[in-house]
Specification:
The protein is of the alpha+beta class and 556 residues long. It contains 17 helices and 26 strands. A hairpin with a 6-residue loop joins strand 10 (169-170) and strand 11.
Protein backbone atom coordinates (compact mmCIF):
# COMPACT_ATOMS: atom_id res chain seq x y z
CA UNK A 1 0.00 0.00 0.00
CA UNK A 2 1.00 3.60 -0.40
CA UNK A 3 3.51 4.97 2.06
CA UNK A 4 3.94 8.75 1.60
CA UNK A 5 7.30 10.28 2.18
CA UNK A 6 7.81 11.43 5.73
CA UNK A 7 5.30 8.95 7.10
CA UNK A 8 6.00 5.46 8.31
CA UNK A 9 2.33 4.54 8.42
CA UNK A 10 1.09 1.66 6.32
CA UNK A 11 -1.85 -0.60 7.12
CA UNK A 12 -0.99 -4.00 5.76
CA UNK A 13 -4.32 -5.37 6.97
CA UNK A 14 -5.82 -4.68 3.56
CA UNK A 15 -3.54 -7.01 1.65
CA UNK A 16 -4.05 -10.77 1.31
CA UNK A 17 -0.39 -10.96 2.19
CA UNK A 18 -0.27 -14.56 3.26
CA UNK A 19 -3.55 -15.92 1.95
CA UNK A 20 -6.56 -16.96 4.00
CA UNK A 21 -6.91 -19.55 6.71
CA UNK A 22 -10.54 -19.96 5.77
CA UNK A 23 -10.24 -23.23 3.88
CA UNK A 24 -8.25 -24.86 6.65
CA UNK A 25 -10.59 -23.70 9.40
CA UNK A 26 -13.84 -24.37 7.58
CA UNK A 27 -13.12 -28.07 7.36
CA UNK A 28 -13.29 -28.28 11.16
CA UNK A 29 -16.98 -27.44 11.33
CA UNK A 30 -20.18 -28.78 9.87
CA UNK A 31 -22.55 -26.53 7.94
CA UNK A 32 -24.44 -24.20 10.33
CA UNK A 33 -27.70 -24.61 8.42
CA UNK A 34 -27.47 -28.37 8.76
CA UNK A 35 -27.00 -27.99 12.51
CA UNK A 36 -29.96 -25.61 12.72
CA UNK A 37 -32.18 -28.00 10.79
CA UNK A 38 -31.26 -30.86 13.11
CA UNK A 39 -31.98 -28.70 16.15
CA UNK A 40 -35.36 -27.63 14.81
CA UNK A 41 -36.48 -31.17 14.11
CA UNK A 42 -35.86 -32.09 17.75
CA UNK A 43 -37.48 -29.07 19.38
CA UNK A 44 -41.04 -29.86 20.50
CA UNK A 45 -43.84 -27.37 20.13
CA UNK A 46 -44.65 -25.54 23.40
CA UNK A 47 -47.99 -27.35 23.66
CA UNK A 48 -46.47 -30.82 23.23
CA UNK A 49 -43.60 -29.93 25.56
CA UNK A 50 -45.96 -28.83 28.32
CA UNK A 51 -48.05 -32.00 28.08
CA UNK A 52 -44.91 -34.13 28.16
CA UNK A 53 -43.26 -32.46 31.12
CA UNK A 54 -46.06 -32.02 33.61
CA UNK A 55 -45.89 -29.38 36.35
CA UNK A 56 -42.58 -28.43 37.91
CA UNK A 57 -42.13 -28.83 41.64
CA UNK A 58 -40.13 -26.82 44.14
CA UNK A 59 -37.99 -29.91 44.81
CA UNK A 60 -37.05 -30.01 41.15
CA UNK A 61 -35.93 -26.41 41.29
CA UNK A 62 -33.89 -26.34 44.48
CA UNK A 63 -31.84 -29.54 44.35
CA UNK A 64 -29.56 -30.92 41.68
CA UNK A 65 -31.47 -33.69 39.92
CA UNK A 66 -30.39 -35.97 37.12
CA UNK A 67 -31.28 -34.67 33.67
CA UNK A 68 -34.05 -37.05 32.51
CA UNK A 69 -32.57 -39.64 30.18
CA UNK A 70 -29.13 -38.04 30.40
CA UNK A 71 -25.79 -39.55 31.33
CA UNK A 72 -23.54 -38.23 34.12
CA UNK A 73 -25.47 -34.94 34.05
CA UNK A 74 -27.48 -33.05 36.71
CA UNK A 75 -29.28 -29.73 36.75
CA UNK A 76 -30.85 -27.21 39.11
CA UNK A 77 -32.03 -23.60 38.96
CA UNK A 78 -31.12 -20.37 40.73
CA UNK A 79 -32.69 -16.94 41.24
CA UNK A 80 -35.54 -17.73 38.89
CA UNK A 81 -33.46 -17.39 35.74
CA UNK A 82 -30.19 -19.36 35.91
CA UNK A 83 -29.81 -22.95 34.71
CA UNK A 84 -27.05 -24.72 36.68
CA UNK A 85 -25.57 -27.82 35.03
CA UNK A 86 -23.12 -30.31 36.53
CA UNK A 87 -21.13 -32.99 34.80
CA UNK A 88 -20.85 -35.12 37.89
CA UNK A 89 -17.64 -37.06 37.25
CA UNK A 90 -15.29 -36.26 34.37
CA UNK A 91 -13.51 -39.59 34.81
CA UNK A 92 -16.58 -41.53 33.64
CA UNK A 93 -17.06 -42.79 30.09
CA UNK A 94 -20.23 -44.14 28.49
CA UNK A 95 -19.14 -45.78 25.26
CA UNK A 96 -18.50 -44.60 21.72
CA UNK A 97 -20.86 -42.25 19.91
CA UNK A 98 -22.93 -43.35 16.93
CA UNK A 99 -20.27 -41.97 14.59
CA UNK A 100 -17.52 -43.97 16.30
CA UNK A 101 -15.30 -40.88 16.41
CA UNK A 102 -15.82 -39.87 20.06
CA UNK A 103 -16.30 -41.46 23.48
CA UNK A 104 -19.05 -39.94 25.63
CA UNK A 105 -18.19 -38.57 29.08
CA UNK A 106 -21.57 -36.92 29.71
CA UNK A 107 -24.60 -36.29 27.54
CA UNK A 108 -28.14 -34.96 27.56
CA UNK A 109 -28.87 -37.72 25.00
CA UNK A 110 -30.62 -35.45 22.55
CA UNK A 111 -32.55 -32.25 23.15
CA UNK A 112 -34.07 -32.05 26.62
CA UNK A 113 -36.93 -29.70 27.49
CA UNK A 114 -35.96 -27.40 30.37
CA UNK A 115 -39.07 -27.86 32.52
CA UNK A 116 -41.86 -25.65 31.15
CA UNK A 117 -39.70 -22.77 29.98
CA UNK A 118 -39.96 -23.48 26.24
CA UNK A 119 -36.17 -23.78 26.04
CA UNK A 120 -34.23 -26.93 25.17
CA UNK A 121 -30.78 -28.22 26.21
CA UNK A 122 -28.31 -30.22 24.16
CA UNK A 123 -25.00 -31.15 25.82
CA UNK A 124 -22.14 -33.53 25.09
CA UNK A 125 -18.80 -33.94 26.83
CA UNK A 126 -16.48 -36.28 25.00
CA UNK A 127 -13.03 -37.64 24.25
CA UNK A 128 -11.72 -38.15 20.76
CA UNK A 129 -11.29 -41.84 19.95
CA UNK A 130 -7.66 -42.77 20.52
CA UNK A 131 -7.21 -40.34 23.43
CA UNK A 132 -7.61 -40.93 27.16
CA UNK A 133 -8.76 -38.79 30.05
CA UNK A 134 -5.77 -37.01 31.59
CA UNK A 135 -6.72 -36.19 35.18
CA UNK A 136 -3.49 -34.30 35.79
CA UNK A 137 -4.31 -32.13 32.77
CA UNK A 138 -7.30 -30.65 34.64
CA UNK A 139 -4.82 -28.62 36.68
CA UNK A 140 -4.44 -26.36 33.62
CA UNK A 141 -8.17 -25.57 33.59
CA UNK A 142 -9.10 -21.94 34.16
CA UNK A 143 -12.73 -20.79 34.66
CA UNK A 144 -14.02 -19.21 31.48
CA UNK A 145 -17.14 -17.79 29.91
CA UNK A 146 -18.37 -18.09 26.36
CA UNK A 147 -21.66 -17.09 24.78
CA UNK A 148 -23.62 -16.93 28.06
CA UNK A 149 -22.07 -20.09 29.56
CA UNK A 150 -19.83 -19.73 32.63
CA UNK A 151 -17.67 -22.80 33.36
CA UNK A 152 -15.97 -23.65 36.65
CA UNK A 153 -14.66 -26.85 38.21
CA UNK A 154 -14.36 -28.50 41.62
CA UNK A 155 -12.45 -31.77 41.70
CA UNK A 156 -13.82 -33.91 38.89
CA UNK A 157 -17.12 -32.00 38.68
CA UNK A 158 -17.61 -29.43 35.94
CA UNK A 159 -20.22 -26.74 36.55
CA UNK A 160 -21.95 -24.53 34.00
CA UNK A 161 -24.14 -21.50 34.67
CA UNK A 162 -26.50 -20.23 31.97
CA UNK A 163 -28.75 -17.16 32.12
CA UNK A 164 -32.11 -18.11 30.57
CA UNK A 165 -33.38 -14.53 30.66
CA UNK A 166 -31.24 -13.33 27.74
CA UNK A 167 -32.83 -12.56 24.42
CA UNK A 168 -30.41 -14.77 22.51
CA UNK A 169 -29.23 -14.66 18.90
CA UNK A 170 -31.19 -15.84 15.90
CA UNK A 171 -29.29 -18.44 13.89
CA UNK A 172 -28.27 -17.65 10.32
CA UNK A 173 -31.08 -19.88 9.00
CA UNK A 174 -33.63 -18.23 11.28
CA UNK A 175 -34.82 -21.63 12.51
CA UNK A 176 -33.65 -21.45 16.13
CA UNK A 177 -32.72 -18.79 18.66
CA UNK A 178 -29.56 -19.60 20.62
CA UNK A 179 -29.59 -18.52 24.25
CA UNK A 180 -26.20 -20.09 25.03
CA UNK A 181 -23.60 -21.92 23.00
CA UNK A 182 -20.24 -23.68 23.43
CA UNK A 183 -19.34 -25.41 20.22
CA UNK A 184 -16.91 -28.03 21.50
CA UNK A 185 -13.73 -26.42 20.21
CA UNK A 186 -12.20 -25.78 23.61
CA UNK A 187 -10.50 -28.41 25.78
CA UNK A 188 -10.91 -28.56 29.57
CA UNK A 189 -7.35 -27.73 30.55
CA UNK A 190 -5.19 -30.47 29.04
CA UNK A 191 -7.57 -33.28 30.00
CA UNK A 192 -8.46 -34.25 26.38
CA UNK A 193 -12.15 -33.65 27.23
CA UNK A 194 -14.19 -31.27 25.09
CA UNK A 195 -17.65 -29.90 25.88
CA UNK A 196 -20.38 -28.92 23.44
CA UNK A 197 -23.48 -27.24 24.88
CA UNK A 198 -26.43 -25.39 23.38
CA UNK A 199 -29.56 -23.91 24.92
CA UNK A 200 -32.12 -22.81 22.35
CA UNK A 201 -35.73 -22.05 21.59
CA UNK A 202 -37.82 -21.74 18.49
CA UNK A 203 -37.67 -18.15 17.15
CA UNK A 204 -41.27 -17.36 18.12
CA UNK A 205 -41.11 -18.89 21.62
CA UNK A 206 -40.60 -16.61 24.61
CA UNK A 207 -38.85 -18.32 27.51
CA UNK A 208 -41.23 -18.62 30.47
CA UNK A 209 -39.21 -18.20 33.66
CA UNK A 210 -42.17 -18.28 36.05
CA UNK A 211 -41.91 -22.05 36.50
CA UNK A 212 -38.32 -21.66 37.75
CA UNK A 213 -39.41 -19.67 40.81
CA UNK A 214 -40.15 -21.58 43.95
CA UNK A 215 -42.61 -19.04 45.34
CA UNK A 216 -45.43 -20.16 43.07
CA UNK A 217 -46.93 -18.80 39.86
CA UNK A 218 -46.98 -15.05 39.31
CA UNK A 219 -50.66 -14.63 40.22
CA UNK A 220 -50.06 -15.93 43.75
CA UNK A 221 -47.00 -13.87 44.61
CA UNK A 222 -47.28 -11.06 47.09
CA UNK A 223 -46.57 -7.53 46.02
CA UNK A 224 -42.88 -6.69 46.07
CA UNK A 225 -41.71 -4.23 48.68
CA UNK A 226 -38.84 -1.79 48.28
CA UNK A 227 -36.68 -4.18 50.35
CA UNK A 228 -37.51 -7.03 47.98
CA UNK A 229 -36.40 -4.92 45.05
CA UNK A 230 -33.00 -4.38 46.64
CA UNK A 231 -32.56 -8.14 47.06
CA UNK A 232 -33.70 -9.06 43.54
CA UNK A 233 -30.95 -10.42 41.28
CA UNK A 234 -29.87 -7.85 38.70
CA UNK A 235 -32.01 -7.96 35.58
CA UNK A 236 -30.44 -7.99 32.15
CA UNK A 237 -30.22 -4.65 30.40
CA UNK A 238 -32.74 -3.79 27.71
CA UNK A 239 -30.98 -4.93 24.57
CA UNK A 240 -32.44 -2.04 22.57
CA UNK A 241 -31.01 0.70 24.79
CA UNK A 242 -27.43 1.94 24.71
CA UNK A 243 -26.00 1.83 28.24
CA UNK A 244 -22.72 3.63 28.81
CA UNK A 245 -20.85 6.67 27.58
CA UNK A 246 -19.32 6.58 24.08
CA UNK A 247 -17.23 9.49 22.80
CA UNK A 248 -15.85 9.51 19.24
CA UNK A 249 -12.72 11.37 18.12
CA UNK A 250 -11.66 11.87 14.51
CA UNK A 251 -8.18 12.37 13.11
CA UNK A 252 -6.70 14.58 11.73
CA UNK A 253 -9.55 17.11 11.43
CA UNK A 254 -10.06 17.55 15.20
CA UNK A 255 -6.91 18.90 16.94
CA UNK A 256 -8.34 17.84 20.33
CA UNK A 257 -8.36 14.12 19.39
CA UNK A 258 -4.77 13.35 20.40
CA UNK A 259 -5.00 15.23 23.74
CA UNK A 260 -8.26 13.39 24.44
CA UNK A 261 -6.56 10.04 23.77
CA UNK A 262 -3.59 10.93 25.98
CA UNK A 263 -5.87 12.08 28.79
CA UNK A 264 -7.89 8.85 28.60
CA UNK A 265 -4.80 6.62 28.71
CA UNK A 266 -3.44 8.72 31.56
CA UNK A 267 -6.48 7.72 33.67
CA UNK A 268 -4.92 4.28 34.21
CA UNK A 269 -4.22 3.67 37.88
CA UNK A 270 -3.96 -0.12 38.10
CA UNK A 271 -3.78 -1.67 34.63
CA UNK A 272 -3.27 -0.64 31.03
CA UNK A 273 -3.70 -3.37 28.39
CA UNK A 274 -2.83 -2.44 24.80
CA UNK A 275 -3.25 -4.52 21.64
CA UNK A 276 -1.85 -2.46 18.79
CA UNK A 277 -0.76 -3.21 15.23
CA UNK A 278 1.75 -0.36 15.01
CA UNK A 279 3.28 1.90 17.66
CA UNK A 280 5.64 4.55 16.28
CA UNK A 281 4.29 7.75 17.85
CA UNK A 282 6.82 8.87 20.46
CA UNK A 283 4.39 10.84 22.62
CA UNK A 284 2.18 7.78 23.10
CA UNK A 285 5.20 5.57 23.75
CA UNK A 286 6.50 7.96 26.41
CA UNK A 287 3.10 7.95 28.16
CA UNK A 288 3.12 4.15 28.24
CA UNK A 289 6.59 4.10 29.81
CA UNK A 290 5.62 6.76 32.36
CA UNK A 291 2.59 4.74 33.46
CA UNK A 292 4.81 1.67 33.87
CA UNK A 293 7.32 3.66 35.94
CA UNK A 294 4.45 4.96 38.11
CA UNK A 295 3.50 1.39 39.06
CA UNK A 296 0.66 0.73 36.60
CA UNK A 297 0.68 -2.83 35.28
CA UNK A 298 1.20 -2.24 31.55
CA UNK A 299 1.03 -5.06 29.00
CA UNK A 300 1.29 -4.71 25.22
CA UNK A 301 0.49 -7.14 22.40
CA UNK A 302 1.77 -6.12 18.98
CA UNK A 303 2.30 -7.46 15.47
CA UNK A 304 5.67 -9.18 15.13
CA UNK A 305 6.61 -7.63 11.78
CA UNK A 306 5.52 -4.09 12.66
CA UNK A 307 7.51 -4.30 15.92
CA UNK A 308 10.83 -4.49 14.06
CA UNK A 309 10.31 -1.61 11.62
CA UNK A 310 12.88 1.19 11.81
CA UNK A 311 10.47 3.66 13.44
CA UNK A 312 8.82 1.27 15.92
CA UNK A 313 8.97 2.23 19.60
CA UNK A 314 8.49 -1.35 20.81
CA UNK A 315 12.17 -2.08 21.52
CA UNK A 316 12.48 1.08 23.64
CA UNK A 317 9.33 0.14 25.54
CA UNK A 318 10.67 -3.36 26.22
CA UNK A 319 13.97 -1.88 27.41
CA UNK A 320 11.99 0.24 29.89
CA UNK A 321 10.66 -2.97 31.46
CA UNK A 322 7.15 -3.05 29.98
CA UNK A 323 5.78 -6.56 29.35
CA UNK A 324 5.36 -7.05 25.59
CA UNK A 325 4.26 -10.08 23.59
CA UNK A 326 4.32 -10.37 19.81
CA UNK A 327 2.21 -12.58 17.63
CA UNK A 328 4.22 -15.29 15.93
CA UNK A 329 1.95 -15.97 12.97
CA UNK A 330 2.18 -15.11 9.30
CA UNK A 331 -1.05 -13.16 9.53
CA UNK A 332 -1.70 -9.90 11.34
CA UNK A 333 -2.32 -8.93 14.95
CA UNK A 334 -4.39 -6.06 13.60
CA UNK A 335 -6.23 -4.84 16.74
CA UNK A 336 -5.97 -1.19 17.78
CA UNK A 337 -7.46 -1.12 21.26
CA UNK A 338 -6.57 -0.32 24.86
CA UNK A 339 -8.35 -1.28 28.08
CA UNK A 340 -7.85 1.09 31.03
CA UNK A 341 -8.38 -0.33 34.54
CA UNK A 342 -10.76 -2.95 33.07
CA UNK A 343 -13.47 -0.27 32.71
CA UNK A 344 -12.65 1.98 29.73
CA UNK A 345 -11.97 0.89 26.14
CA UNK A 346 -10.29 2.91 23.38
CA UNK A 347 -10.85 1.32 19.98
CA UNK A 348 -11.20 2.15 16.31
CA UNK A 349 -9.21 2.36 13.09
CA UNK A 350 -6.36 4.33 14.66
CA UNK A 351 -2.83 2.92 14.70
CA UNK A 352 -0.55 4.68 17.16
CA UNK A 353 1.56 6.37 14.48
CA UNK A 354 2.45 9.89 13.38
CA UNK A 355 0.79 9.25 10.03
CA UNK A 356 -2.47 8.28 11.70
CA UNK A 357 -2.44 11.47 13.80
CA UNK A 358 -1.46 13.99 11.15
CA UNK A 359 -2.41 12.61 7.75
CA UNK A 360 -4.87 9.71 7.57
CA UNK A 361 -8.63 9.73 8.05
CA UNK A 362 -8.99 7.83 11.34
CA UNK A 363 -11.21 7.43 14.39
CA UNK A 364 -11.30 6.17 17.95
CA UNK A 365 -14.27 5.67 20.28
CA UNK A 366 -13.72 6.00 24.03
CA UNK A 367 -16.26 3.61 25.60
CA UNK A 368 -17.10 3.74 29.29
CA UNK A 369 -19.23 0.63 29.32
CA UNK A 370 -18.68 -2.27 31.71
CA UNK A 371 -19.84 -5.07 29.40
CA UNK A 372 -17.72 -3.80 26.50
CA UNK A 373 -14.65 -3.44 28.73
CA UNK A 374 -15.17 -7.01 29.95
CA UNK A 375 -15.36 -8.30 26.37
CA UNK A 376 -12.14 -6.57 25.32
CA UNK A 377 -10.41 -7.66 28.53
CA UNK A 378 -11.28 -11.29 27.74
CA UNK A 379 -9.96 -10.90 24.22
CA UNK A 380 -6.70 -9.43 25.51
CA UNK A 381 -6.23 -12.27 28.00
CA UNK A 382 -6.93 -14.84 25.28
CA UNK A 383 -4.25 -13.35 23.04
CA UNK A 384 -1.79 -12.84 25.91
CA UNK A 385 -1.94 -16.57 26.63
CA UNK A 386 -1.82 -17.49 22.95
CA UNK A 387 1.38 -15.48 22.38
CA UNK A 388 3.20 -16.67 25.51
CA UNK A 389 6.93 -17.30 24.96
CA UNK A 390 7.67 -20.86 23.88
CA UNK A 391 4.04 -21.69 23.21
CA UNK A 392 3.22 -23.09 19.79
CA UNK A 393 0.49 -20.78 18.53
CA UNK A 394 -2.61 -22.35 17.05
CA UNK A 395 -5.62 -20.56 15.63
CA UNK A 396 -7.70 -19.26 18.55
CA UNK A 397 -11.24 -18.93 17.22
CA UNK A 398 -13.49 -16.43 18.98
CA UNK A 399 -17.02 -17.48 19.94
CA UNK A 400 -20.14 -15.66 18.78
CA UNK A 401 -20.56 -12.22 20.29
CA UNK A 402 -23.79 -11.12 21.89
CA UNK A 403 -25.56 -7.84 22.60
CA UNK A 404 -25.45 -6.36 26.07
CA UNK A 405 -25.95 -2.75 27.08
CA UNK A 406 -26.95 -2.05 23.48
CA UNK A 407 -23.65 -3.09 21.93
CA UNK A 408 -21.80 -6.22 20.84
CA UNK A 409 -18.05 -6.83 20.51
CA UNK A 410 -17.21 -9.27 17.71
CA UNK A 411 -13.73 -10.75 17.50
CA UNK A 412 -11.99 -12.52 14.62
CA UNK A 413 -11.01 -15.08 13.48
CA UNK A 414 -14.36 -16.46 14.58
CA UNK A 415 -15.79 -19.89 15.14
CA UNK A 416 -17.85 -21.14 12.21
CA UNK A 417 -18.33 -17.60 10.80
CA UNK A 418 -20.62 -16.84 13.77
CA UNK A 419 -19.46 -13.24 14.17
CA UNK A 420 -19.41 -12.69 10.43
CA UNK A 421 -23.10 -13.62 10.34
CA UNK A 422 -23.89 -11.15 13.14
CA UNK A 423 -21.99 -8.43 11.26
CA UNK A 424 -23.77 -9.16 7.96
CA UNK A 425 -27.17 -9.39 9.65
CA UNK A 426 -26.63 -5.92 11.13
CA UNK A 427 -25.94 -4.56 7.64
CA UNK A 428 -29.07 -6.32 6.33
CA UNK A 429 -31.18 -4.62 9.01
CA UNK A 430 -30.95 -1.29 7.12
CA UNK A 431 -34.37 -0.03 6.09
CA UNK A 432 -33.58 3.45 4.79
CA UNK A 433 -29.84 4.17 4.60
CA UNK A 434 -26.48 2.43 4.83
CA UNK A 435 -23.32 4.56 4.80
CA UNK A 436 -20.10 2.56 4.48
CA UNK A 437 -16.67 4.13 5.02
CA UNK A 438 -14.01 1.42 4.90
CA UNK A 439 -10.33 1.29 3.94
CA UNK A 440 -10.51 -2.02 2.08
CA UNK A 441 -13.62 -3.67 0.67
CA UNK A 442 -13.32 -7.04 -1.07
CA UNK A 443 -15.61 -9.33 0.97
CA UNK A 444 -18.14 -10.90 -1.39
CA UNK A 445 -20.80 -11.36 1.28
CA UNK A 446 -20.76 -7.66 2.24
CA UNK A 447 -20.85 -6.59 -1.40
CA UNK A 448 -23.88 -8.79 -2.01
CA UNK A 449 -25.69 -7.41 1.04
CA UNK A 450 -25.20 -3.86 -0.24
CA UNK A 451 -26.49 -4.79 -3.69
CA UNK A 452 -29.52 -6.52 -2.18
CA UNK A 453 -30.30 -3.48 -0.01
CA UNK A 454 -30.02 -1.18 -3.03
CA UNK A 455 -32.58 -3.31 -4.86
CA UNK A 456 -34.93 -2.82 -1.90
CA UNK A 457 -34.57 0.97 -2.33
CA UNK A 458 -32.26 1.45 0.65
CA UNK A 459 -29.86 4.29 -0.08
CA UNK A 460 -26.37 2.80 0.01
CA UNK A 461 -23.24 4.95 -0.28
CA UNK A 462 -19.62 3.81 -0.04
CA UNK A 463 -16.36 5.65 0.65
CA UNK A 464 -13.03 3.83 0.36
CA UNK A 465 -9.31 4.48 -0.06
CA UNK A 466 -8.29 5.22 -3.65
CA UNK A 467 -5.40 2.74 -3.77
CA UNK A 468 -7.37 -0.04 -2.10
CA UNK A 469 -10.35 0.59 -4.38
CA UNK A 470 -8.07 -0.19 -7.33
CA UNK A 471 -7.22 -3.62 -5.91
CA UNK A 472 -7.93 -6.39 -8.44
CA UNK A 473 -8.34 -3.76 -11.15
CA UNK A 474 -11.06 -2.03 -9.15
CA UNK A 475 -13.47 -4.96 -9.54
CA UNK A 476 -15.43 -4.35 -6.31
CA UNK A 477 -15.76 -0.62 -6.94
CA UNK A 478 -16.97 -1.21 -10.48
CA UNK A 479 -19.43 -3.91 -9.41
CA UNK A 480 -21.07 -1.61 -6.87
CA UNK A 481 -21.16 1.34 -9.24
CA UNK A 482 -22.65 -0.84 -11.99
CA UNK A 483 -25.38 -1.78 -9.51
CA UNK A 484 -26.19 1.91 -9.04
CA UNK A 485 -24.51 2.39 -5.66
CA UNK A 486 -22.66 5.65 -5.02
CA UNK A 487 -18.91 5.08 -4.54
CA UNK A 488 -16.30 7.73 -3.75
CA UNK A 489 -12.60 7.57 -2.89
CA UNK A 490 -10.04 9.97 -1.48
CA UNK A 491 -7.65 11.74 -3.81
CA UNK A 492 -4.77 12.36 -1.39
CA UNK A 493 -1.39 10.65 -0.93
CA UNK A 494 -2.56 9.54 2.53
CA UNK A 495 -4.90 6.79 3.71
CA UNK A 496 -8.69 6.94 4.06
CA UNK A 497 -8.32 4.49 6.89
CA UNK A 498 -11.76 4.42 8.58
CA UNK A 499 -13.60 1.10 8.95
CA UNK A 500 -17.14 2.10 9.93
CA UNK A 501 -20.73 1.96 8.77
CA UNK A 502 -23.87 3.81 9.88
CA UNK A 503 -27.19 1.98 9.60
CA UNK A 504 -30.37 4.08 9.32
CA UNK A 505 -28.67 6.98 11.07
CA UNK A 506 -28.80 5.27 14.47
CA UNK A 507 -26.50 2.20 14.56
CA UNK A 508 -22.70 2.40 14.25
CA UNK A 509 -20.44 -0.48 13.21
CA UNK A 510 -16.76 0.28 13.84
CA UNK A 511 -13.41 -1.28 14.70
CA UNK A 512 -10.13 -2.52 13.26
CA UNK A 513 -11.91 -4.81 10.78
CA UNK A 514 -11.33 -4.24 7.06
CA UNK A 515 -14.12 -5.82 5.03
CA UNK A 516 -12.01 -8.64 3.66
CA UNK A 517 -11.93 -12.41 4.07
CA UNK A 518 -8.41 -12.26 5.52
CA UNK A 519 -9.69 -9.94 8.26
CA UNK A 520 -12.43 -12.46 9.11
CA UNK A 521 -10.58 -15.74 8.67
CA UNK A 522 -6.99 -14.96 9.59
CA UNK A 523 -6.13 -11.66 11.29
CA UNK A 524 -6.83 -10.79 14.92
CA UNK A 525 -9.54 -8.16 14.47
CA UNK A 526 -12.58 -6.60 16.11
CA UNK A 527 -15.90 -5.00 15.26
CA UNK A 528 -18.13 -3.19 17.75
CA UNK A 529 -21.81 -2.73 16.92
CA UNK A 530 -23.48 0.16 18.77
CA UNK A 531 -27.23 -0.18 18.38
CA UNK A 532 -29.57 2.75 18.89
CA UNK A 533 -26.82 5.19 19.80
CA UNK A 534 -28.12 8.41 18.20
CA UNK A 535 -25.36 10.69 19.52
CA UNK A 536 -22.59 8.38 18.33
CA UNK A 537 -24.40 7.80 15.04
CA UNK A 538 -24.75 11.55 14.44
CA UNK A 539 -21.02 12.02 14.91
CA UNK A 540 -20.12 9.24 12.48
CA UNK A 541 -22.82 10.37 10.03
CA UNK A 542 -21.27 13.84 10.14
CA UNK A 543 -17.82 12.41 9.41
CA UNK A 544 -19.25 10.44 6.50
CA UNK A 545 -20.99 13.51 5.03
CA UNK A 546 -17.81 15.57 5.38
CA UNK A 547 -15.77 13.01 3.45
CA UNK A 548 -18.53 12.40 0.91
CA UNK A 549 -18.51 16.10 0.07
CA UNK A 550 -14.71 16.35 0.14
CA UNK A 551 -14.31 13.37 -2.18
CA UNK A 552 -16.99 14.52 -4.63
CA UNK A 553 -14.39 15.17 -7.31
CA UNK A 554 -13.44 11.47 -7.29
CA UNK A 555 -16.96 10.58 -8.45
CA UNK A 556 -16.38 12.53 -11.63
Amino acid sequence: LKQPSGSSHSDLGALPRFGSMGGRLASCFSAPDAQDAACTRNLPSPEVANRRRGPATVDQLDAHAAVPGGKNLRWSFEDGRFLLLEIVDLSQSHGASSTGKTVSVASSCGHKDILQTGASLSLNAYLQVGTAFDKAGLAAFQPWKTNNIELSMTGLTLRMKIDLSVKGTLSSSGKVRLLACANGNRQLGHSNIFVSCQVMTKPDVKVDLSCLRSDGPPAKRRRKSSDDAKEEPPQRHDLEVQSGDFTPHFFPKDPTSLPALLDTLNEARATLEIAIFMLTENELARLVMRKHKAGVKVRIICDNEMAVTATSDIDEIIAAGVAVRKDDTKLLMHHKFAVIDSRVVVNGSFNWTAGAIRNNEENIVVSRCKSLAEAFQRQFEQLWKAFAPGRVHTASLSPAGYFKDGCAALFFPDLGDANLRIFLDELRSAKQTLEVCVFTLTMREAVQVMKDLHKKHVRVRVISDDRCADFRQGATKQELMDAGIGFRVDASPFNMHHKFAVVDGRTVINGSFNWTRQAENGNNENVVIHRHAPGLARAFQGEFERLWKEFARSAA
